[in-house]
Protein 1
Amino acid sequence: MKQMNSHVVAILTFELLLSTGTMEWIPKWSEAFKSEVWLPFTLYFTLLVGIITLFYYMTAYIPFTENNLTLFDTLLGKYLGAGLNLLLVFFLITYASQTCINGIKIIQYAALPYTPIAALLLVGLLIPIQLIPAGFEPLIRYQVSLFYPALSLAIFLLIMSFRFSNLHNFLPLWLPVQPTFSSFLTNILELLPGLNLFVVYLVIFKKHQAALSLKSMLLGTGGVATLNFINLYLALAVLGPFESATLHWPVLEVVRVQKMASSFIERLDLIFLVPILVAMSSALNLYLYAANYILTSYLPFAKWIVLTITVSALGFLVILPHYFVHTTLKIQSMINFFNLFLVIVCLPVFFIRFLLIKKKEVHND
Amino acid sequence: METTQKLIDQIILTSDVVVRTIPYLQLEIVFITTIVDLQRIEEHILKPLTERARIPHEQQTEPLEEWIANNLHVAKIKTLTSPKEAAQSLLDSAAVICSSKGYLAIDMHGQTRRTPEEPKADTSIRGPRDGFTEIIDVNVSLIRTRVKDEKLQMKERIIGERTKTKVLVVFIEDLANPRIVKEVFDRLDTVKIDGVLDSGTLEQWIEDNHWSPYPQMQATERPDKTVAALLEGRIAIMVDGSPFVLLAPTVMLSFFQTTDDYSQRWVSGTALRLIRIIALLVSIFIPSLYIALTMFNPELIPLKMVLQLAATREGIPLPIVAEATFMEIMVELVREAGNRMPQQMGQSYTIVGGLVIGDMAVQAGIVSPIMVVAVGLTALGAYAIPNYEAAFVTRMIRFPMLLTTSIFGIVGTIAFTLMLFAHLCTLRSFGVPYLTPFVQMAGPDLHDSLIRAPLQFSEKRPGTYWSPRKWLRRANQQKGT
């Protein structure tokens, strides 16, 4: 049976785009756009669909070779590609560390306030340490087998939490003061961390003969946009834009305030940790696997040494910002910069290269 | 006779090795009295041969070998030339007729044969009542009576340098994936051990990951289950001397499927299967969740219940984790003792252990009544899992889960579950992912997974076991009529 059928591709597209699933962007969006969030969300959705369609056509029509690691070296040549690949590794590990930090913070906030970061990090790393040496297919199995249970539970809890919503919170739909273009761009980019994963995974999919189709990729894209939409509107409907803007995890807070009277479980926030931790561990696996996959190709060491380097770098980046607040801010700004670089510079360059390759093919024919 | 001497040189001459000389015919018959059927030897070999010896030499027109082949009333006769082969046949319950030209091995299996009985470890309510025995030929006949397909293939391997145990690999040629069949033979051929006493030993030599606690092959005593597996494109491995047949490849789901699921209507079959899944979840999670909710997050449960729990725990000196671990170990002790005792006594001991010890522990104030309920539910859940090995692993998994929960609370339970999932995702059975069909999310294969959809839905053979034939399993009756 084919492991990477179109259904699996749709699920992976969803997971690549979802990233951690903790929705830290909601407070920033609420603050920047208030009840007018529908406008940037529409733009986000349009941009997302456009980018995914572009990625699909690039993957479908560009000839890949066994030596290709990412879209960088496939489209931009060996040397420039290698430089960008190593830069990408740094950012992938940084993203992974951010995922870990978010996960640890949310666990400490919701359940274990006094548990040391190192202990939680160690527990979290036991999953990728098992999966990464086993290869790409076990990783995909993990991502796919937990997808529906976690998603169903999350959606059930989110829908339950709509009980106390107030639709007046969505008004006014149009604010007198319009946000700036840069505000739109930076906020939308916060929702696109998965794009850097696509740079790696599209090539891996191709190598594993995944049944890539535009339909399945758009299905995954639509799924992630819908989930983001539900989360955003839940936070706004229950808390309102002003209160949402002041909270770090507004969706968790919304679920937290639910009290299920005359039920065996009265509160749902810890149950909500289940889908959150599944999403986080999925994101961590994807980032670490991608970083390890690129490093393995460049470093002349045994696989276990490369994995040790990757995991140690991650551990360093998780523990370090805890003691240096400025480091955290620096890392955050670097991540934003890389997103910007990817969307503003890389994607147009990819597109031009793609057109040139296509033109050359037509000419040769 | 020289040939007899050469044969005897190959083995150690013990008291049960008999060499019988037939006068006038220049023949000697060698056999081992403890493993052959003496009555059959007397009737079918000695009697005709001695009668022929009485016939005057000039009247014996037919050559002796030809005469034996035509007149002895036996099914299997093998002509052998090498004394080594003859010795092997001798040890494999044959009577060997030694002549000056060579050897004739005649199968005379005579050990006690247990008739097929209802399997003890693999019961069914509506399914057939026969089960495999220790004799491989009987087991083969149980398969053959059910599958009359000309493509049914059986290939033999002899494993065990000293036991020379016969191992049969059974599959249906156009249903089993040739790559998996080859893999099975490759692995069997690499097994170089002194002896195979049971299919369980062989299983551990040929499984994919010997560090995993999960069984990667399914052991069954049921011929109907084996036949169902063959029809799905799986491979059965039979070991002489073991009533358990190994089925490969195996996915986790197959441990939760029973014959009853298919012999009942789909609603009942689905309900049964869901009950087993719930049993699995109860068995793994109940003690951990009890600890997480009472020790770490009592705010999750209603106040009335918290007060009730606190009241039942009043005066209990042990912390909840120690109480849970103590009770879990007690249950395992009772179970193991019940298994080892004679059957009638074991049953009553289990009841005594369960009720009296539990009750006494509560009265003595060592454990709370709610803990007895939790542990009882856990034990019941584990016993509802149809496969012994899967049930055992489930019970054992509880202990590390208890440990992580006692350190990290509900986060520990979730983290341990995810770790377990990660481990299961790395597992394969002869190349087939252990969590198939969930890891591929292939629609048609999910019809027979957590649910058992109406049989009309499963027109295509499932791809779960990588069977090469994916076309219709049966004629499309509804469309045709």
Protein 2
Amino acid sequence: MFLPSGSQDETGVQISNRLKASEVFRLVAEQRNFKPITTPVVEYAATFTNDIAGMDLHSMLKWFNGEGEIEVLRPDWTAAIARAIAGQPPSEQKWSYQGSVFRFDKAEKESRQAGIEIVHAERFYGEAESLLTAIAYLQRLDITSYVLELGHTGIFEAIIAPYSFTKEQEQQLLQAMHDKRADLVEEIALIHEDAELASSLISLIDAYGSRDIIEQYRRKWSARQNLLAILDHIEQLIDLLEASGVTEVIVDLGRVKNLPYYDGIMFRAFLTNDGSTCFSGGRYDKLYEQFQQRISAVGLAFDVDILAKHMKPASEVVKSCIIASPATHAVAEAYRAELEGQVVDIQYQLETPANYQTIYEVIEENGQYKVVKL
Amino acid sequence: MKPVIALTKGRLEKQFLAFFESLGYDVEPLRDKGRKLQIETKEFSFFFAKGVDVTTYVENGIADIGVVGGDILVEHQPDVYNLFPLPFGHCRMALATKADYQWPGRKKRIASTFTRITKEYFKEKGESVDIIRLEGSVELAPILGLADAIVDIVETGTTLKENGLVIEDEFFSFSARLIANRSSLKIKRDQLVPVIERFKEGVKQG
């Protein structure tokens, strides 16, 4: 029997690292007063594809149910949690979740995520608590070499707000900004024959790097209060991150949302050794508009598979083996409990002694069983 | 670590080398590479691959930046930064068929390597067609009766002419483009931006 493309069996270090990553996440979330939540793996497609959530049905694993409705395997946690908690009383809530998401457009159809959602909280507090939780978690996993990036959906939106683009043009422009595709950005911006708009957007494409970029743009946008407020906001978060020991924080002022529900600050972290994105998230107040709610909502999700791949190997644990027999298995089991902190195997026939630092055997002496070290 | 650049073998290779040399870079190690697919220069690590594979290597972060035809990017839509056009590798997409071909009354059969582009083209025209995917020498399809027409890239039109095909419509023009891995551009900014800026200067002068 074979496996379909994008599915795999797993054994060994990757899976033990993932289990450890999950356990550490549970502890970190619990210590920070997040309550666990889970949603079903099977949901209606509309939860994710409605105009506000805006996800692409093509990338989902889907089928028709008996009533002809499209059901999917959960492609995203945030939209599912929004559905689940929309009816909750409007008081601050901190949720944590762990589980798989399923997508066709990824190399692996199933990937594991762990994440947090903070709703109805004071805005800056929610963002700060999300980022500080991420930092605490990475620290507990001993993952220290990463670059944290901040962006904001409001910058692009404020720049194009005075211009009346059609929905299609706006979508094309958003995609061109997402791809940092300067020629297409210019072409679309020039629909309004406004060279200033084109040059603003093109320079925004290159507005990524250290926090010095913020100073440059503060001068550039000195008369634009709404954009200055966004820069203040980003800078306030950078101050918080730097004060919390994060040394590599970058900004991308030209970053645009890739899902329509993002609505404000966006953050993600790249691991420096191979550039993989270990977490991403941001503000998505808009997501709750589908439930006629205007609330503060922010969160982030870790890619647990990526974390597991980059976790350092666990410190060496002593491995021992007790040689026993059907008659002495119970004695060996009792002795196993005494070897606390070790990995203890019981075997009837020892075939690979080199795998163990210490080997014991249960022997019979004067009608009594006892364990001896070989 | 040096920036890693993925280059498209074949059609674009020579044109890239001429462009790269015009930027003041030493291209001798690339010209003298023989059959080697990986070349180290003082400043860069290069490797050569098929266009679509260049996008895969860049998307997966094996290469930081890449040079690839715009046709490949439209067809395969990799998740990369699609930065800007380069002043070489110009071509256009065309619908071609046999000269004086009488289109049948049934749904048309179109052969192409570029199935996504073909689908979008006919969708725009509001016409349903059957698309036959071929890996190469698509000009054969109408001649041998596999398809009514083809959608393919055209540089000079010579290959079409020599095979008795005529262009019915031209609908996209492309050039080579510079692409970049999404995270490399951020975390290797100090290394990559000077190179990208030099490419930009070359484009302006080209």
